[in-house]
Amino acid sequence: MRVLNPVVWPPKHTLFGVTVSATDYEESARAVMAAAGRREGGVVTHLAVHALVTAARDASYRAKVNTFEVVAPDGQPVRWALNWFEKTALPDRVYGPELMVRLCRRAADVGVGVYLYGSKPAVVRSLRDKLLERFPALRVVGCEPSAFRPLTPEEDGALVRRVNDSGAGLLFLGLGCPLQESFAYEHRRSIKAVQLCVGAAFDFHAGNKRMAPPWMQRGGLEWLFRLTQEPGRLWRRYLVTNATFCLLFARRLVAGA
User: Fold this and answer.
1) Which residue in 46, 72, 154, 193 has the fewest CB atoms around it within 10 Å?
2) At 47, which helix (H) or strand (E)?
3) CA 1/CA 118 separation, integer angstroms
4) CATH code of the domain in which 35 resides
């Protein structure tokens, strides 16, 4: 008889009103795979500065995120804030694209099925193919793009059935922030797989976009690299959210003084 590991989700701390998990790759992966093996569901998201500020400023979005089992510190500044204010001593962030790779490796080892949902048809197909090249034993039990519009109740019900009938233990969502978090929240009771909001990981692992060099990632400068890649789309986002993050950080410093 197969013995299933217990599901122990990592602890959380409140950062600017948002509950963020004080966790690392190993702890997160262990909890996710335990839940996937049991098909108990659960939601994991990854907050960089943009997503954290969005949650801090938007009460509706924050209420959804605060129900998730794992809210990982995706950005280095988020990790730094946790370490500064909550003394968590986290040695590294939990980057969505990296956690996705680690989970796929474990899923391939133990036979847990994964489902890919989001992005454009060519991107999600390329993602599937590249994951299978990297992990030949991986069971990709579903692969479909976003509709890029709200689903009708009938379409939504059919999607839930496809995911559940596939037997997937992991559902990777590449819908972008905040759409993927809203999707995961709305389906947290109906979808049996662990839902993982990984956003740009679809583009990165499909080879559609470049990841920042490791030194920029370590230094908290990934936003700058992405800005150089897509300045017209991202300049306003980073101007506003980075400034807001600094303001929130400073306010808490003063309040705690």
Assistant:
1) 154
2) strand 43-47
3) 36
4) 3.40.50
Between residues 257 and 204, the one the model is more confident about: 204
How far is residue 63 from each of residues 54, 172, 182, 223, measured CA to CA in Å? 12, 21, 10, 25
Range of the domain at 91: 12-206
Question: Is 257 inside a domain boundary?
Answer: no
In a domain, 3, yes or no: no
pLDDT, one tens digit per residue, over 175-195 is 988 899 999 999 999 999 999
Q: Where are the beta strands (DSSP E) in 152-243?
A: 170-174, 194-197
Residue 2, pLDDT score:
55
Contact 10, 70 (CB under 8 A): yes
Q: Are strands 170-174 and 113-118 parallel, antiparallel or unpaired?
A: parallel
Does residue 165 sit within a domain?
yes
Q: Is the pTM of this model over 0.85?
A: yes
